[in-house]
Amino acid sequence: MAAATPSRGPRLSAAMREGERVRPLELFFDVVFVLAITQCTSFMSDRPTWEGLAQALLILAFLWWAWTGYAWLTSVVDPEEGAVRIAIFAAMAALLIVAICIPGAFDDLALEFALAYGAVRAGHIAIFILASRDEPALRSSVSGLAVGTAIAVGLLIGASFLDGTAQGAVWVLALLIDLGEPYLFGAEGWMLVPAHFAERHMLIMIVALGESVVAIGVGAEVSLSAGIAAAAVLGIALVAGMWWIYFDVVALVSMQRLIQAPEGAERNELARDSYSYLHFPMVAGIVLAALGLKKTLAHVDDPLEIAPAFALMGGLAFYLLGLVSFRWRHVHTINRHRLLFALVLLAAFPAATELPALAVLTSVAVALCAMIAWEHVNYGERRAELRQEFMQ
Length: 392
Description:
The chain has 392 residues and is mainly α. The protein has 14 helices and no strands.
């Protein structure tokens, strides 16, 4: 009688994603990202200077890159099956530490921020390695990403021992390496479920817009006057307008373009460029606008300081420029009136430091709503056709 073969324990593995629906654990993961965005807004609010804005945007860029990495990951593996669920919980804990460290990310908590960020990225790479066990092309791409990530995290750790311009320069170098690796070394080996991937980014846009609503409430503090009430209503109108110009048509068309793109390098490059890269200026614009709204609610009758004024005007401009670029990457056409509106906002921002904050917010909100109304009148029939086609 043949000897029994010794049984092996189940090897650690990751279940591949089946289906397009965003899973509850992915939304739960985003809850921690909400705190991180709120911390970035608070960081800028406490440091309403050019340096404060630049530092907050650097922090936000690293946070964004970590989040979008997990969006790629959960478009490959099922986040709620096997060891991946526990790994996602661990990543949430590390991301929570990152968020807690944000106020001191360039000061006394710089090292803790770098180490916690490294833990978030290490968990991401580890799960991807499990998922790529039987996918040589994916394993090669993950290995390249691991090298770029390790260099970037190492630079952040080194920057924690510096200060001033030198520290900022090392942060910028680390960010360029972190973001640049997937672009420089190709996208052939990556995998994704296009409908799921697009929906993840649509949902994170709602999360970011929600931060603007939170900023309105925080800016009002505990008092209410006619000016504050008017600013709150106008703030909601501005946020609603930002929602409208993304979700009304652009998000739907772009999702279908991604679904229809040929599988492989072409689809992966489209996902990388339009979602991983070009969504960042939109998210950054929302966070900047949230700062402008917060400061407006706190000082409705006074002119905004130069950095908050730029945050309000420039934030909306960055959002519009991100949308223009997003559309160009998908359909290779330019929305000229949105581009013009963004340029006007950037050119007019110095005037925002001379006028009462409420007057500036009124002008910006009314102009955005007028642009939306103009689009609806001029493109209403085509808009209805697109929505009917892509919402079926």
